[in-house]
Every structure is written in C-alpha cells, then in structure tokens.
Amino acid sequence: MPKYTRSVCVFCGSRPGARPAYTAAAQGTGRMLAERGWRLVYGAGDVGLMGEVARAAQAAGGETFGVIPVHLLGKERGKRDISTFVVTETMHERKKVMYMNSDAIVVLPGGAGTLDELFEVVTWRQIGLHSKPIYLLNTEGYWNPLLAMAETVIAEGFAERSLAEYMVPVASLDELETRLTGALG
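The line above is the sequence of Cytokinin riboside 5'-monophosphate phosphoribohydrolase; the predicted structure tokens follow.
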C-alpha cells in the first residue's frame, strides 16, 4: 500500500537555470511534497531542476513517480532509483501519464519543454478536460512575462478571462504549500 495520499505533477527544467534560487525552489518543492505525504510525479530526469526536485523528495522520504520517453533516456539521464520509473514511446504519452497520475500541477522555471507541458495542461483545462489546479512557482518573477502575455491574449480577444485564472502564480514555497493543502486536503 502506498504511503502517499495525493500526487503532484511537477513540470520543470532539465537544466539548472542561471540563478541559484531556481535550484533552491526545486529542492524546497521536493522536500515539501515529501513532508506532506504527497507523491512527486515528474519527468524522471536526473539532471537540472528535475533531478533536484526528485533528489530532495527522496531525501525527505517521499514517493517519486518518474515518466520519460524512450528517446530521452540518454539525453536526460533517467533517474532509475525512484519509486516508479515509467518509459513511454512519445513525449505526448509522457505528458498524459504524468497528468493522469496527479491531482495537481506545479510548474517551476524551465525552457521549451516546460512551456509545452504547461500549455498542454492549460489547454486541456480550457476545453474542459480537467479541473486540476495549476500553480506557477514564480521564483524571482520568472513567470511574469508569461502572465503578461496571457493578459495580452485575453485583451486581444483570443481567450476568455479564465485562461489567466487557470495559471495561478505563487510567490513562495509557503504559499505553494498553502494552496496545495487547500486543493488537496
């Protein structure tokens, strides 16, 4: 029987980024999830922020569920010492497995892959395929340009106000924990 009560999908970079605060946020997220008894669902990489969040969750005694497509096994160095390690055929299947095995989504800083993952779950929410909360950990204001772009999309008539409401920015790990606790119980 698993010891976790809920699962949180974390999308984040396979690189560490330019600021130490990004690594600290990833480590803090992994630790917080484990301490709350929530399973980490993530991209199964052992590099960048992905590796940091997983190692921190493991060090705090948390469950880890990693999903990686076969073509990235060599590139992202799959972290095989996690609780569950799933290899998919495609990137789309990876996102689907991660989403299906989580109760909430947290997005840390990252690049094109992270943006792709974010936009897919936001689009799914926009068209009514799910109602899971999506939180952007806005470390050092990383997500501010994206949030401004969402406002432009809305102002220019390409989306309803709900688009911005689906991506909930949180300024700190404490706020993230509070929001997740409210959403997951």
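Note on the example: The chain is about 45% helix and 20% strand. The helical segments are 20-36, 48-59, 91-100, 112-126, 144-155, 162-166, 173-184.
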